[in-house]
Amino acid sequence: MRDKAYAPYSNFKVGAAIRGASGRVYPGVNVENVAYPEGTCAEAGAIAAMVAAGETELTEVYVIADSPAPVPPCGGCRQKLAEFGKGETPVTLATVDGAEFATTIADLLPGAFTPAHMEKG
């Protein structure tokens, strides 16, 4: 899936796969735009595909890039993952050469902003 990313400016292609609570896997790729901040991350694309299919809970995340070491999601995507997954949700970060790093959403985003922060006392 990573090879389908649209990254003509950075040539840094990222792929993500998210497993929903149903067991179905939703792919995503990064999509760049000449106006750099207008692009989307692979994780965000996979989440959007999951939500479009009617699911709102993810149970596993896998991110892969052609880099020397496994690449973690950006800060915005960490918050997006926390929106749809529990803290203990496994996240695997990988390189195309086979290196992998196992972590969790909570480890990627300690102190995540959650719906509990929106509750009025």
Automatic annotation (TrEMBL):
It catalyses: cytidine + H2O + H(+) = uridine + NH4(+); 2'-deoxycytidine + H2O + H(+) = 2'-deoxyuridine + NH4(+). It is an enzyme of class 3 (hydrolase). One of its GO terms (biological process) is pyrimidine-containing compound metabolic process. Gene3D superfamilies: Cytidine Deaminase, domain 2. The keyword Metal-binding applies. It holds the Pfam family dCMP_cyt_deam_1. The keyword Hydrolase applies. It comes from the Bacteria. Keywords: Hydrolase, Metal-binding, Zinc. Coiled coil: none annotated. One of its GO terms (molecular function) is cytidine deaminase activity. Its EC number is 3.5.4.5. The active site is at E43. This enzyme scavenges exogenous and endogenous cytidine and 2'-deoxycytidine for UMP synthesis. Belongs to the cytidine and deoxycytidylate deaminase family. This is Cytidine deaminase.
